[in-house]
Amino acid sequence: MRKIIATAIATAAFALAALSSTVASAGPTLDRIMSEKKLVVGVAPWNKFVLLNPKTNEYEGYIVDDIRNFEAMTGIKVELVNTTWSGLVAGLQAGKWDVVMSGLGATPERATAVAFGEPFGYLSSTAVVRADSSINSLADLDKEGNVISVVSGTSAQQFSQRTFKKAKITPLADTGAAVLEVMQGRATAYIGDSVSNELRAKERPTELRNVKFGSNETEWTTMNHAVRYGDLDLMVFLDTYIRSMKLRGWYRGLAEKWGLPIELATGPR
Prior knowledge:
Keywords: Signal
Pfam family, one: SBP_bac_3
Order of helices and strands: HHEEEHEHEEEHEHEHEHEEHHH
Shape: globular
InterPro entries: Solute-binding_3/MltF_N (IPR001638)
Protein name: Transporter substrate-binding domain-containing protein
């Protein structure tokens, strides 16, 4: 009996040691990041979140502040690579960067291509229309002859394609072009996130107006980092940072600093 117990204990100890070794080992991407102390990140322009200041030639915003805090806490230098929203996932898959940190919304469609981590922000969908437009609701928008501009590859495009049955959806490469379509009368509305659209309407009150949808009509999306499925250990590392910062109220403070709604940090209630 003692021999059986001793054998069982030895077997259990060996299994535990093997498991610990497996858990502790990192994949090649995370190994390289830890060794070089360098993380290459893909980002796309987004006002108040990730934007290059032409005066300082430095990136700034809600997400950039979070990245700089991550650098300070981990000692890992982050290299930002600027791209378009539609190119974020393709660049990640091609190995141009290790992770996407532009607040890409986690959706089932995108999850077939990349792995998403812990959310660090929350957004809903709204419409920007001309200030003199008669559009006041989602029903007003979904009519024959109306044109909805969106940025290609965003969750707003996916929301619009699922929601609008009669209006025409026009995907464009970047936000500036999509909003310009509305301002110049070629599009009825631009569908984007609630935070950015509210800022646009405040900045151009005589030109643009933000139309919010009913609670049963809009969709909430999360802001997440994304990695390749082969780099899930990297995501565990990043998620540890995000969860810790949430508990410290870091994201709420960032929202206040950048004049953004607190719901960005708290989500729907």
